[in-house]
Write a structure and sequence with these properties.
4-stranded antiparallel sheet; globular; about 350 residues
Length: about 350
């Protein structure tokens, strides 16, 4: 069953990694619109990683937050950022060009912005979005602060900037070449194969359509990438759907005796935009169709959800009252009975991560 295999591949059950950069490298990319929740997406996939560990990795540039693939915000391991940008840059430039034209942002404006941003950040400087916008306004390049989305995304896609060290609670940008040493360029087929391997080792079972959705590749490109690692993939039928499983997943599952794991009560507080849901085009194998609106909205807002035995069964939220962290849960099926200690354990795991 999908719900037996996927939690293992996604490092939710029996996690193997104790460093944020290793976990990010395994996952390939971790969606990160909600910055704080994306840190929990790393923490929940380890027994020992804390928010301090994730913050330290971000500060050191071991993991980076940037626009890539679809494009959207992702956390990626520094070791992967150059070849991933190389693989997706042309497609992303094309995808955002129409909106740039609508905003009246010409190629000349983008190139001038890049040049000035490079000068601002030289010497390992880390500047907030507002600080960069202020400088661009003074130079007469930026006319409307809303255009900053277009300008910074293009600079990221061009391999000029990436996330820098946070200033308090504010994120910053830094020069990519000063954060990450230059890397050997991969041939396109090498990059496609590497991306496919990362996806299927961490997201199996999945389909070619799922991989296309996650990666931003066309279905033709996704199938090409899959063919490049076909010797590492096994096709199996789940319900009425043929899905692909990376061989590494089967080896792990065999050693852990999958049949025994089916009886375990495993409950997790997954963050918003978690890879367990967002990285698949078809989510019905882990979430009943009737409950989709409770997990994510039509305009792409993904909510924090509860995972139980591989199935998404409800929502959770946190609040701080009088300095005390508390949690509220709601289940899609009000008749569902969950042992209270499982909820307590899930909450305690989050507490241990942030304290």
């Amino acid at each position: 069953m999908v719900t037996n295999i996927r939690p293992f591949c996604q490092q939710l059950m029996t996690p193997e990694f104790n460093k944020p950069k290793d976990l990010a490298a395994w996952m390939g990319a971790i969606q990160a619109q909600d910055y704080n929740m994306s840190k929990w997406a790393i923490g929940i996939r380890s027994q020992s990683i804390t928010i301090k560990d994730v913050d330290d990795a971000l500060k050191k540039g071991e993991i980076l937050r940037t626009h890539i693939m679809r494009p959207t915000w992702h956390l990626v391991a520094a070791e992967d950022i150059h070849w991933m940008i190389q693989l997706s840059a042309k497609r992303i430039r094309s995808a955002i060009s129409g909106y740039n034209r609508y905003r009246g942002i010409t190629e000349d404006i983008l190139l001038k912005s890049n040049s000035l941003i490079e000068k601002m950040l030289e010497g390992h400087k880390n500047l907030t979005r507002q600080e960069i916008a202020d400088n661009l306004m003074k130079a007469g390049i930026l006319r409307d602060p809303l255009d900053m989305n277009c300008i910074t995304m293009r600079a990221e896609v061009d391999g000029l900037i990436c996330s820098g060290a946070d200033k308090g609670k504010k994120t910053t940008y830094a020069l990519l070449e000063e954060r990450v040493p230059p890397a050997k360029k991969l041939h396109r087929e090498e990059a496609l194969a590497k991306l496919a391997k990362k996806y299927f080792q961490s997201h199996s079972p999945a389909s070619s359509e799922d991989f296309s959705w996650w990666s931003g590749l066309s279905i033709t490109e996704a199938r090409q990438a899959i063919n490049l690692i076909s010797s590492e993939l096994i096709t199996d039928k789940f319900s009425s759907e043929n899905l692909l499983i990376h061989e590494s997943c089967l080896k792990v599952l065999k050693s852990l005796e999958l049949k025994n794991s089916e009886e375990k009560d495993e409950l997790y507080f997954l963050p918003s935009y978690d890879e367990y849901l967002i990285s698949y085009k078809n989510r019905t194998s882990v979430l009943d169709l009737e409950h989709h609106p409770k997990a994510f909205s039509k305009n792409g807002i993904f909510h924090p959800v509860i995972l139980y035995k591989g199935q998404v069964i409800g929502n959770w939220s946190k609040s701080i009252k009088k300095g005390k962290l508390s949690f509220e849960v709601s289940f899609f099926d009000p008749k569902l009975k969950i042992r209270p200690e499982l909820i307590t354990e899930a909450g305690n795991r989050y507490r241990a991560f942030i304290l």
